[in-house]
Amino acid sequence: MYQKIRSSVLAFLILLLGFQIVDVAAQDKNRKQKAWPDSLAKVTLTGTVIIDTNHQNIYFLDVDNDGVADFNLAFGPAWYEPESGATRPNAGDYITVVGSVNENPVIPLVIVFEINGLLWREPVENWWRHYQWCDSLEIVTVTGTVLVDTTYYYNHYYLDVDGDEAPDYKLCFGPPWYEPESGAVRPEEDATVTIEGVIKGDDLPCLEVFTIDGLVWREPQGPAPWSGGWIGKDQKGQKRIHCPIDSSSWVEIPGGAWQGGGHQGPQFPDSIYCEFMKVWRDSLPDRSDSTIAGWHFHFSNPAGNRVNGKGVPVRFIKRLRMQLRYAEGDSGGMMLGKSNTVHLRYWDENIEQWLPVSDASYDLQNEVVVFETESIQSYYAIFGTESVTSVAEFNNGIPENFTLEQNYPNPFNPTTTIGYQIHSDGLVTLTIFNVLGKEVRTLVNKSQLAGIYQITWDGRDNSGNVLPTGTYFYKLQFADQKEIRSMLLVK
Q1: Same domain for 201 and 96
Q2: Is the pTM of this model over 0.85?
């Protein structure tokens, strides 16, 4: 059946796929050949299976019934078998697959997530695993052959210890950027290695690597070196904990902010370990197409066990300051124009909904959001809404005009977003008044760089009291310029 595919296309495709699937080292030298998972469109396709048996059973899908391959199906390495019981199809089978499509190859490539309603693999395999810390587990030494899954942007490593060409362990080397000082490197496909580490439970056991062939990968005690930082009851000064893959995302903890179990139960000890990671859109709960970027926060006690369980935020007695950078690139998120409207939300695990973060300040020029809070949730995400701004209004990415936008939504309940732009650096004040002209809330009162900003108002006054239904006015003051608009709060 596969002879129906044009021979010239087939020859080129085999050469291309042979490079992409077999030559792992070459991929590492030029990662641009493999797309970020979040940059790919999710699709559902139905059609007839075509198989090239001359080259490691390469799978294709004919969706328009013309006998010609329309998509290449990426099921991963030949040894991969999902727990769901799903199996690779046979030639001529009529199937439905769900996956992400990369349009760049000669024949578009679909990374398969589901086949005929059965899970094939999760959208993203996450190396960031939250169980107890390694020093509470037994160290083992295992020797085997390395298997490498190159389906995604970053390689995933496995170990075959019994010679059956199927993985017995996942190998956890940490984030892709981590390189130990010992000179140890990640192994190549089919290499025979000896790993010393600890086994963590999973559908397929995960072997967290301490040494590889006698070279130190990471120390076995305490949290991993690519992780976060301690927050203690005796912390005197201010501490800033960064996201390990993006130093522009951080949480700033003032001294004395953590008081341990006294204010939220004995399960919260005198010191906790904070770590957070920027995660793929598909790894967020109740994800949507408007999601731009997301973050997952994890807190551990001194034994390494998680303390922020389901529906339990971690609360502090002082306000923490947080900055999250949602720029496209390391997050794999959507490319944002400077005119996009963005909203920061957190995931409420009790009601299973995304709720707005109040009084967040958005710097659209630098693609960061800043806010203060006394409690940290497990998940945060940036959602985007397209708007239109003329290119003529910008000069080298800097607005040429002073502008105060109409709030959105309007009328609103309970929150609304106010956008504005300033064309030079200076002191900015954004205040809200009631119909009597009395100031009820100051949202911004600080120096800012030229750029585009947004801030969310939660309908409360400066004392935290919920304001009644009515018309309110908001005024933006910058240098000798000011602008006033009205909005309607409806309960």
Answers
A1: no
A2: no
